[in-house]
Every structure is written in C-alpha cells, then in structure tokens.
Amino acid sequence: MESPDGQKATRMGQVAAAALIGTAIEYYDFFIYGAAAALVFGDVFFPELGTTGRLLASLSVYAVAFVARPFGAVLFGHFGDRLGRKAPLVASLSLMGSATVAVGVLPGFAVWGWWAPTVLVLLRICQGVGLGGEWTGAALLIAEHSPAERRGRYGAFLQLGPMIGFMLAQGVFLAFRFLLGEQAFREWGWRVPFLASAVMVLVGLFVRLRIAETPLFTAQAGQVDKRPPAVEVLRSHWRTVLLGCGMITVGFAAFYLTTTYALAYATKWLDVSSTVFLSMLLPSALAAIAATLVSARLSDTWGRRRMLLVAVVAGAAWALVFFPLLETGRWPLMLLALTGAMTAFGCGAGPVASYLPELFPTGVRYTAVALTYNLGGITGGGLSPLIAAKLTDAYGSAAPVGWYWAALGVLTLACLWRLPENTGADLASVR
Q1: How far is Cα 383 from Cα 400, in angstroms, rounded to an integer?
Q2: What is the predicted pLDDT for the residue at 238?
C-alpha cells in the first residue's frame, strides 16, 4: 500500500509532467513562427519589400502575438478564476494548435497576394490569445498543488517547457534545412514543422485531460466575487501587476534578442550560415535549462527575489559584450556569447513560475499572473526585436542593442526593489 507521501509525490509528478509537456508543445508552436520569421517569411509573405523591410514586416507580425497575449490573459484568466485552472489549459492548447497547423497550409504572397500576410496576422493573433492563458494556467497548476517548501523546485519543470519547445523548434528547422537543402526548404519544407504540431497537440491534450483541479481553487470555489476578476485586479492589484511586468521585461528581452533577433542579425548582416547559428543555439539552450533547474531550487532556500536580483545584474552586464562577441564572426566567441546570455536568462527564469503566483490571492490569481506575465511579454519580447532592428539599421551595428538590453535590466532592478519577498508563502493566505 502506498503511503500518503508517496501518493502526493506521484500526483506532483503527474502535475509537473502535464504542465511541462503542454507548455513545451505550445511554445514549440510559438517558436517555430520565430524561426520561420527570421529565415523565410520575409520572402514568402513580403517579397515586394526590401531586405530590411522584409525582416521588419516579419518581426512586426511576430510582435502581433505579444500584443494579443494580454487579451488571452483576460479571457482565459476570467474562466480560470471562475471555472478552474484545468479547462483554460485545454482550450488554450487547442486554439494554439489549430492556428499553427493553419499557418502550415497558408498560401504565400505569390498565390494570395496581400490576403496571405493578412491571414497570417489573424492566425498569429490566435496564437497570441492562446498563449496568453497557457503559461499562467500551468504555473498555477503546479504552484497550487505543490508543498510551499518545494514550490520553486516544482516550478522549474514549467520553466523547462518553453526551453524544450524552443529546442524542438530549432532542432526541427535545423534538421529539415539539412535534409532538404536550402531551395526545397524555402519552397515547402518550412511548412512541415507547422503541420507536425497537430500530432503534438493531441498528445498534450491527452495528458492534460487526465489531471485533477487544484485543491486551492476547489476550496474557494463557493466564495467567488461577483465582480469580473479583471476589474478586481485593476482596482486592487494594479501596482503589483505593473511592477511584476517591469520585473520580467528583461527576461523576455534577453531570450528573444538572443534567439529570434540574433538569428536574423547573424544571417542577414553577418553572413553566418543559419545552419551554423541554429547549431550553436541548441547547446546554449541546454545551458539555460541547467541554470533554470539550479536557480529554481536555490530560490526555495535563498529566496526568489534575491535569486532574481543576481540574475538580472549578471544578464545586464553580459548584454554589453553579447553583440561585440557575435560580430567577431568567430564561432567559439559566438557560442560563448549565446551560452552566457542563455545562462543568465535561465538563472532569472527559474524562480518566476513560483514567484508570480505568490504575489496574488487565489480568487484573482489566474487573471493577475496572466496579465503580469503577458504585459511583460509585450514590453520585453514583442518590442525588443523591432527596436533592435531599428537600432542596428540606424547605427550600422548591433552594439547599441546591448545598451538597450542593459537599460531594461536597470528597469527590472528598480521594479524588483519595490516587490516583496514571498518565498514559501501560504497561497491560501495571500491577500
């Protein structure tokens, strides 16, 4: 007969696996667009624009999803705070998967003209709305199931999801470019990673439909406030939402500048083979995974806020050398640049999945965390590649982008300084 502790460990393993698998699939869907935007979408959907115009147009459509994410946060947050954490997770995965597969069959500009990029924008909005509720639901699933003293450790599994999704996306693109060759990949091979999402989504849905609702939500289900959760968040928790948004901005910027923008910059401006660059991104992602696991575990004993402060300082310092190292064109130094940036990112990513849920009460936690996380996605992830492209075009070098990146780190430090340290808090008692 299994002991209660053994049953609890088994349940936490199932919850962590459900969060990790589903989030990895959703972020795979999200990241394959980023890789395609940097490599082929300019030619497929915006062929009449110049080289810089094609890249800016592709990155602009990429940014559209970040703008849509807060709408998904409010939508899925409302149902997550009213109906439970599980239902929005299933719905968001279904929406994301459908939109991704549709991109894989979307005709290009040569067939549909301007209707092609128009529909691409609409599908990208659907991706953003879907992802707007995904990460938060998975974070709460883990945080509200896990014991307080191990909340950071279990939260790390969620933070591995985006990294695994990123590695899958980059690995699939790298494999198809190698197997098909440049011409076939640009003509039709880029569509296969989008179509493959259908199988992965079915696996994710199977796993998520088997998990139970969180005990914290079940306990407070009969005490629901009549006001919409978004209204209560804006009335009583707006300050924490804004500070939290500022706190995670540099993390989003670090990730998307290191991956999406650096990939575009290296291939378009530095004439680095995309295959070579994608090959260097994969080991740097492994460094991020290792850093995420270590920092999340340390946050349980050392404190989440303190761990985040250290990560932000290290990341801001590395930002100043990142692009100069890339611009050497020497692959060992480029690999060093990517690995250092992704390690700093992982150190900051580890505690986030447990830190944000500890800031808000159960009745509005889904909406509040979703808004915080996805507004940070706009300021850090959506705008940063666009600003970086503009700075590079204006100065003829990406070195100023590093200063912009470091400045975001200073903003994050200021916000962290104003936020509390709630490590190990009783989530039922947070007000």
Answers
A1: 15
A2: 93
Could you give the 3-state DSSP secondary structure of residue 424?
coil
Instruction: List, for residues 399-423, the tens digit of each pLDDT value.
Output: 899 999 999 999 999 999 999 998 8
Spatial neighbors of 22 by CB under 8 A, at least 6 apart, are 89, 93, 134, 138, 161, 204, 207, 208
Where on the phi/psi map is residue 424: left (φ > 0), alpha (ψ -120 to 50), or beta? left
Query: Any idea what DSSP says for residue 1?
Result: -
Outline where 83-220 has alpha helix (H). 86-105, 109-112, 115-143, 151-180, 182-184, 191-195, 197-208, 215-220
Beta-carbon count within 10 A of 53 CB: 12
Distance (Å, whole) CA 402 – CA 38? 20
Record the tokens describing residue 407, joined without a space: 């400045």
The count of C-alpha atoms lying within 13 angstroms of the C-alpha of 364, restricted to the half-sphere facing its C-beta, is 25
User: Which tokens belong to 91?
Assistant: 């719905």
Instruction: Answer whether residue 4 shows pLDDT above 50.
Output: no
Lookup: tokens for 297 = 């575990």
Q: What is the pLDDT of residue 222?
A: 58
Q: Which residue did the predictor score with more confidence, 339 or 92?
A: 339
End-to-end CA distance of the chain: 39
DSSP per residue, 322-391? HHHHHTT--HHHHHHHHHHHHHHHHHHHTTHHHHTGGGS-GGGHHHHHHHHHHHHIIIIIIHHHHHHHHH
